[in-house]
Specification:
The complex is a heterodimer of chains A (about 600) and B (about 290). With about 600 residues, chain A is of the alpha/beta class. In chain A, about 35% of the residues lie in helices and about 15% in strands. In chain A, strands 1, 2, 3, 7, 8, 9, 10 and 17 form an 8-stranded mixed β-sheet that branches. In chain A, helix 2 crosses helix 3, helix 3 crosses helix 12 and helix 14 runs parallel beside helix 16. Classes of the chains: A alpha/beta (about 600), B alpha+beta (about 290).
Chain lengths: ~600, ~290
């Protein structure tokens, strides 16, 4: 394989073909760049297909009291003001156009009575805001973008894993990886690279994420010297399936609560009343009766003065509530709580939540039109990630960009449901366009350093020869157990300290991981590089979580339960320093006065 | 803990394939994909199987379970008798890569030749108004998760019954979703004819295996066949078009036709495979699309 190493030079290389990667690739191609799109799976299988509830945008089709300003405020309040305000502003302003654009590209959203795009309510959103297609919005989004990318003639490299970024004179100049179907190495020299690789859920035992979510982009950026920020903020979605064991962690869409789903504990108590934060209580219904009026109005498609049910609190809060109920002995038989939508007409439930209906019927023998589901928290989304420039998605490393879940700043300490799909579209487009613009200023596709290629090829071959030989699956199980038990929903100094120690031990064992079999489609071999990435992001999460001595959004410290004004002015920063990981802080970007006023207006 | 008996196909295009027996401990609610993951974690870390979401939403884990094209993530272990051997094989219609993974790149090539969504140029999106009932059929087609089980089970593709192009049920469904879109302006009738819609003889096998319960034959293929029949085989229509000087029946502007690739190569090298044309195709390196 020497000499004739396969090379595919491009102006812009996009790594990851979920919503952000596809949208970036389309934008870069429209700007005239020659674009390559690399993905670990087949095209159209990315984790975006799992997004269910909808895409948040103040279209004002259902409630004309909505506006980008209110969407901005909801996003900032939900993120506990740790968001990059410029990102939250751009997102709220541009999301409606991005949704309309999807429709003009062939997406077929559910309709209002007057024939426009229907919007549904979601946790933390002041008004019904989520454009959706039943509960399979992510599939609609990815298929629309996939069709658009194919029609644009974008070159797609499927089932190809990028393991290394190639750098030279302070600039990222290419990517190195291997074909999963043949095991052969491949190099992608590029003028600019966009990382759009998604999240990190596979570092935890219970997760709604697919195997692909192993922190690849975060780790590649870190290894290339880019900053990661806010890595302690991992979103635990309140409602994953808890039973049967084979599907534990599988997502139960927030749309169930958006359509009126009620959470109850084993005693039948609607416990969310107890957990509404005092400063936000005025946004929620005061009684069961008011919450019921809200659901009725929703079903009838009319505006109401009734306030939303307590189940539509933000995800961080609902997750803690469920965790606490279970821990204090009021859980359901399989260690969750009950989520009930069966009081609505069966036909409505099947029409609004078709894939949830199927999922429970086929995987758990539960008819959700006839009785409650059992649900509990599941690792779902990474708010932290690569530090990016709000306007362009540029990372702190020249030539390297990032968009979507792998990038940080947009969601602060907690993401609102529905803001992820809109994030992908808004920042995918901006980043792809900016990468293309930078590429246009460069004359030719750069050469890639042959020494780095050789080193990467040696690293690929190493696990077939390693002695004494660690089993990658065992290492992965230990990593997941460590993160699940010590770096979960509630954290404490001693646990985090222990986690960091255990992770160091796993890291030390990693070079001796050994795999059996050959190079062709060998998942054990693939796991080796994903383990490297998961170890890096896990250490970043644990160290950032230990550093932040407060509780904010998704980061809850039992030993520091209060929100700290001082910490509210800082981002956590993770940076590579030789072979060591350095954790520090940097001041939060300034909040301009006019945006401060918008937040206060709520 | 009770255990299940699995017989899993293992092999590459270069090697004689074999069925390997595994005893897998079963817990409540387990699906076949869980069993395959258990095998990877405990017995054969290099067992090749495609999967992503494990929730029947991505359509990656299609394989043949006891001969039936199925999603491994949706097939429960409790569907089988405890004493029964559960045989897991790759999709036979496509060339083998390794073990349970096949080269499905042909599908992506066919997809590229479908004329994309073509909205009217004189009506901006802001003016579009559709009722929910106008789009229900299109939304049914857009539920497709591209698992290719319909392509796998289709006898025209599986048995290589034609040397002419046939796009297969998946891409007839995609075309139907575009053709029935409330405002799409393109005419794909000629492409449907060239894409072999006539080869389908309505056995409905595709509908039976669809995990999304799309009524592929009744709702997509039959209406498309009718469009082609009206255009090309209805004498009154032909005369009417001649009188009006309408040339649209000639297939001009078609993106399909000759350029539509024929599925070549055979199925997986499964020893029990009795389908004709089971010679092993290349394309195991077909990741580049």
């Amino acid at each position: 394989m020497s000499g004739s190493l396969e090379r595919h030079p491009h102006d812009v290389l996009v790594i990851g073909a979920g919503g952000a990667g596809l949208r970036a690739a389309i934008a870069a191609a429209e700007a005239g760049a020659d674009v390559g799109l690399v993905c670990k799976s087949l095209l159209g299988k990315a984790h975006t297909v799992m997004a269910e509830g909808g895409v948040a945008a103040s279209l004002r089709n259902v409630d004309d009291r909505d506006s980008w300003q209110i969407h901005f405020r909801d996003t900032m309040v939900g993120g506990k003001l740790l968001n990059n305000p410029r990102m939250a502003e751009l997102h709220a302003q541009e999301a409606p156009d991005r949704v309309r654009e999807l429709e003009s590209w062939g997406a077929v959203f559910d309709r209002t009575a007057d024939g426009r795009i229907l919007q549904r309510p979601f946790g933390g959103h002041s008004h019904p805001r989520l454009a959706h297609v039943g509960d399979r919005t992510g599939l609609e989004l990815i298929r629309t973008l996939q069709d658009r990318a194919v029609a644009a003639g974008i070159k797609v490299y499927m089932e190809c894993t990028v393991t290394h970024l190639m750098t030279w004179t302070d600039r990222v100049r290419g990517a190195f990886g291997y074909w999963r179907t043949s095991g052969e190495p491949v190099v992608f020299p590029a003028k600019a690279i966009v990382l759009a690789t998604g999240g990190i859920g596979r570092a935890f035992e219970i997760t709604s994420n697919s195997w692909e979510y192993s922190g690849d982009g975060q780790a590649l950026a870190y290894l290339a010297g880019a900053d990661l920020i806010d890595m302690e903020f991992v979103q635990f979605h309140p409602t994953g399936m808890v039973w049967p064991p084979g599907v534990r962690g599988l997502l139960v869409t927030e749309a169930v609560r958006g359509e009126g789903g009620i959470l109850r504990n084993r005693d039948g108590e609607r416990f969310m009343w107890k957990y509404l934060p005092e400063d936000r209580r005025h946004e929620y219904a005061a009684t069961d009766e008011e919450a019921a009026r809200w659901v009725e109005a929703l079903s009838a498609g009319r505006q109401t003065d009734a306030r939303r049910p307590p189940e539509l609190s933000t995800r961080d809060n609902v997750s803690r509530a469920i965790y606490t109920e279970v821990k204090e002995g009021r859980g359901s038989p399989h260690g969750g709580v009950f989520l009930d939508i069966s009081y609505l007409p069966a036909e409505t439930v099947r029409r609004k939540l078709p894939s949830m209906y199927e999922q429970f019927k086929e995987l758990a023998d539960v008819d959700i039109t006839a009785g409650p589901m059992e649900v509990g928290p599941t690792t779902h989304y990474m708010m932290g990630g690569i530090r990016v420039d709000p306007e362009t998605g540029a990372t702190t490393r020249a030539g390297l960009y990032a968009a979507g879940e792998v990038a940080a700043g947009m969601h602060g300490a907690n993401r609102l449901g529905g803001n992820s799909l809109s994030d992908l579209l808004v920042f995918g487009r901006r980043t792809g366009a900016a990468a293309a613009a930078e590429a246009a200023t460069m004359d030719e596709v750069p050469q890639v350093d042959p020494v780095q290629i050789r080193a990467a090829m040696d690293e690929l071959a190493a696990p077939f020869a390693a002695e004494p030989g660690q089993d990658p699956h065992r290492l992965h199980e230990e990593l997941q157990a460590t993160m699940q038990s010590l770096v979960g929903i509630f954290r404490i100094e001693a646990d985090l300290h222990e986690a960091i120690g255990r992770l160091a031990g796993l890291h030390a064992r990693w070079p001796s991981v050994r795999v059996s079999g050959g190079r062709i489609y060998n998942p054990g071999w693939g796991l080796v590089y994903e383990l490297r990435n998961m170890l890096i992001v896990s250490e970043a999460i644990a160290r950032s979580a230990r550093q932040r001595t407060e509780s904010r959004g998704a980061h809850s410290r039992l030993d520091h339960p209060e929100l700290s004004p001082a910490w509210g002015r800082k981002n956590s920063v993770v940076r590579r320093d030789g072979d060591k990981m350095k954790v520090a802080t940097s001041p939060l970007p300034a909040l301009p006065d006019e945006l401060r006023q918008l937040i206060k207006a709520g | 803990m009770p255990s299940a008996h699995l017989s899993v196909f293992r092999g590459t295009p270069q090697s004689e394939g074999e069925y390997v027996a595994f005893e897998v401990p079963v817990e409540e609610g387990m699906v076949v994909l869980d069993a395959l993951h258990w095998i990877q974690a405990n017995e054969a870390s290099d067992l090749a199987v495609r999967w992503n979401c494990k929730a029947a939403k991505c359509g990656s884990c299609g394989c043949e379970i006891n001969g039936k094209p199925s999603l491994a993530c949706k097939t429960r272990m409790s569907d089988f008798e405890p004493t029964e051997t559960i045989t897991v094989e790759p999709l036979r219609t496509f060339p083998l890569v390794r073990d349970l993974v096949t080269d499905v790149s042909w599908n992506y090539e066919v997809n590229k030749r479908i004329v994309p969504f073509s909205p009217p140029t004189d009506s901006p999106q802001a003016d579009w108004r559709w009722q929910q009932e106008d789009i229900e059929r299109v939304q049914e087609f857009r539920k497709c998760i591209e698992c290719f089980l319909c392509q796998d089970v289709c006898h025209v593709l599986r048995n290589h019954e034609t040397e002419r192009p046939f796009m297969g049920p998946r891409y007839l469904v995609r075309t139907a979703g575009l053709e029935m879109h409330p405002i799409d302006q393109a005419d794909r009738t000629a492409d449907l004819k060239d894409g072999g819609v006539g080869y389908c003889n309505i056995t409905k096998c595709c509908t039976e295996v669809c995990p999304e319960h799309i009524r592929i034959t009744d709702n997509a293929i039959i209406p498309l066949k009718e469009r082609v029949a009206d255009r090309y085989y209805d004498p009154i229509q032909i005369v009417w078009r001649k009188l009006r000087g309408d040339r649209s029946g000639k297939g001009s502007g078609s993106r399909a036709g000759e350029s539509l690739p024929v599925l070549s190569g055979g199925s997986a090298a499964a020893p029990s495979d009795t389908t004709p044309g089971a010679d092993v195709g290349g394309g195991a390196d077909g990741a580049d699309s």
